[in-house]
Amino acid sequence: MYYKQILKIKSGPTSIPLLGNVLQLRNEPLKVIQNWAKEFGPIYSIRLGTEDTIVISDPKLVKELFSNINSAGRTINPITHYFGHGNGIVSNQGAAWDAQRTFTVRKLRDVGLLKSSNEGSLMEGAESLVKFFERQVGKSMQGTKLFNGPVINGLWRILSGENKFEIILFRTVNKASIIFFAPFLRHIAPKYFGWTAWTNVVDAVFELAREAVEKHSKQLDANNPRDFIDHYLIKIKETTDPTSSFYQQNGVISLEAVVGDLLAAGSETSSTSLSFATLYLLLNKEVQKKAQQELDLMVGSSRQVSLADKSSLPYTEAILLETLRLSSITPLGVPHRMVEDTMFHGYLLPKDVTIIAGLYTIHHDPKIWGEDVNEFRPEKGF
Questions:
Q1: What is the average pLDDT score of the chain?
Q2: pLDDT band at 202 (very low <50, low <70, confident <90, very high)
Q3: A GO BP term, please (predicted)?
């Protein structure tokens, strides 16, 4: 490709028409990408489906580039676009994406864990989960979906003010992920490649979001907002700029998309992280013992742990950070798209090229984390 010649970036493995390097990623794709980084360096180019893509596997380079507004574009692919069809956060980009993300982050802080009532609700969910574990002593159980209920109930409380959520089985999209790289496959065999299952799940989530928004619209008291949806509806009423993504019906559509984004994306990542944390603690009894000692010393047994205790529980926090590193549940992050031609460390990154961060590779780099990089050791975070 023309830009590869300008960049002088090492081309990755030889690709084939239409599929690019996708077939080479069928088995253990994260290991494959990790090996490519060793062979081609921290910046190299591959072809995913029909798209030329640059992979960056150096933490400093990733942080620097993604802090540049020119890398804030999003790739348009069928999986992410089906979330809200260009609205909300996941499938949005540009000024609308920035406005939606900024408002959402700010309001989630206002109505989220910082409110004692919501923290209390989450702690009730945690207590119920502990009691469930106690009833399962001596029994075998499936651990991958243990936290889905408590996590999504807590999230739903913050979004809608309601305590109970009708749990949907969020299915993994392992098959559908190939469509991310080769979109045309959804037209050839949509059921086989997971497209049908994917759209069914997303449709169900967004239908619940629409019902919640409609209910809140009828009950809204602008002087007494109860939750995130209420705050967003007030923002819609206050918006007078017709070009804004918060304006009138566009705002309603965006709200439904944001709620759907948070339900579908936020709940799955949080519950999966908690499942990995549980697994790592089960496999590392000494780590479990140290965490319990810290909790006994700093919190005691007379009350529940609180978010206010965070600063006095460094080892417990290190366990969570080590869980995120070792599990790498979003191993390639969110693909970025360059919105302008940009010079970066001597390379020209052309407009519209896709940038992927090799987060799994970074999180498993022995040069950064030591030779025991594949071992669960919270002390790495100190």
A1: 86
A2: confident
A3: xenobiotic metabolic process
